[in-house]
Amino acid sequence: MKRLLFYFIRGLLITVPVVVTGWLVYQIFIRVDRILGISIPGLGFAVTLTLITVVGFLGSNLLTRGLVAAIETAIERLPFVRLVYHATKDLIGAFVGEKKRFDKPVVVTMSPDGAVRSLGFITQESLEVLGTADTVVVYLPFSYSIAGWTFVVPSSRVRRLDASSSDFMAFVVSGGVTEFPKLR
Question: Are 181 and 168 in contact (CB under 8 A)?
């Protein structure tokens, strides 16, 4: 009986993540197809990826950079739209692109005795502009969420880790369930 229970639990550990991942991917494909009004499963997703790639190509081209700049200038003039645009652009840029922000994993000492620590990423090396040159800005992501806390912390309470940012983010976002990334 114990052996059967062991096999059942092992089966759950294998099956549930595969099924949940498959279901989420399927839902993304179906919703994109539905939004675009395409009845062939997956075609809408392929069209979206192609369109995004073409926009990236055009945005990198000298001839269309002026058009991109003009669109951004127009967005700058719209108060609420500007806020949403910049927040979205900064969030995407924090993960991909030339100005990645989540590339400096750290351990932050949260309590005076050092017993409580948190894992995060340095997003600003200094706040000298605010008169606090000996501080850093640290983003502490929540588990199973894209949200998190942003703290201004004394540099002395931050210990940098030489680890892969993506592996470190996976560890933090999973609530520490995934394997801790290997330190280099």
Answer: yes
Tell me the C-alpha distance between 164 and 183, whole Å. 8
What confidence tens digit (pLDDT) does each residue in 51-83 have?
Answer: 888 888 877 777 777 777 888 888 888 888 888
| Residues 115-136 as b or e (16 or more Cβ within 10 Å = b) | eeebbbbbbeeeeeeeeeeebb
Q: pLDDT averaged over the chain?
A: 82
In angstroms, what CA-CA distances link 58 with 19, 61, 129, 130, 139?
A: 38, 5, 36, 39, 33
Write phi, then psi, for 87 (nearest 5 degrees): -65, -45
**Angstrom distance (rounded) from CA 69 to CA 97:** 18
Nearest partner of 163 among 102, 110, 115, judged by Cα: 102
**DSSP classification of residue 157:** G
Vertex 139, ends 134 and 145: CA angle to 5°?
170
**Predicted TM-score (pTM) of this structure:** 0.58
For residues 110 and 18, what is the distance between their CA atoms, to the nearest angstrom?
37
Torsional class of 131: left (φ above 0), alpha (ψ -120 to 50), beta (otherwise): left
Measured distance between the N- and C-terminal CA atoms of the chain, rounded to whole angstroms? 44
